[in-house]
Amino acid sequence: MNGASALRTLPRGTDPTPGNANFALDLGALAPSSPTFLALGLVVQYQPLGAGCTLFVAQPLATLFAVAPSSAQVRFPIPIPNDPGLRGVQFVAQGAVFDPPRSLLGSATLTAGLRITIGD
After folding, report:
1. Within the chain, where are the H helices?
2. How confident is the model at residue 1 (pLDDT cuts 50, 70, 90)?
3. What is the structure's pLDDT at 16?
4. Sign of the alpha-carbon dihedral angle for 64, 70, 72, 78
5. Which is it for the CA torsion 68, 23, 59, 47, positive or negative?
């Protein structure tokens, strides 16, 4: 992990499958009211940013934004269309949190990248 925040998929039943409108990613261990972002893309890169942080998502297709609630966890819904042609498609996700007191970069904390394959 590249910082204090963790990115993870949700428990069983929210698997990345075609037609799963409940698929989501959680970004946790956040300071309340912190601006958070989730970048999604199809291309993985390993771009070192310094202080042990690495940027994993190349050419993001989407960037989602939320403000962390008092629970210190943000859920990013990513409904998957009911299209069998999506089986086998891989994408990568990485979270970022603007939290200067805990950041190794001075302003943002990055999660490790998460590679996800849409399956059965």
Report:
1. none
2. very low
3. 92
4. negative
5. positive
Number of neighbours of residue 61 by Cβ within 10 angstroms:
11
Report how far residue 70's alpha carbon sits from residue 118's, in angstroms, rounded to the nearest whole number: 32
Burial class (CB in 10 A: 0-12, 13-18, 19+), 96: buried
pLDDT at 66 over 70: yes
The 3-state secondary structure of 30-95 reads: CCCCCEEEEEEECEEEEEEEECCEEEEEECCCEEEEEECCCCCCEEEECCCCCCHHHCCCEEEEEE
Contact (Cβ atoms closer than 8 angstroms) between residue 8 and residue 28: yes
Q: Which domains does the chain have, with CATH numbers?
A: 6-117 (2.60.40.10)
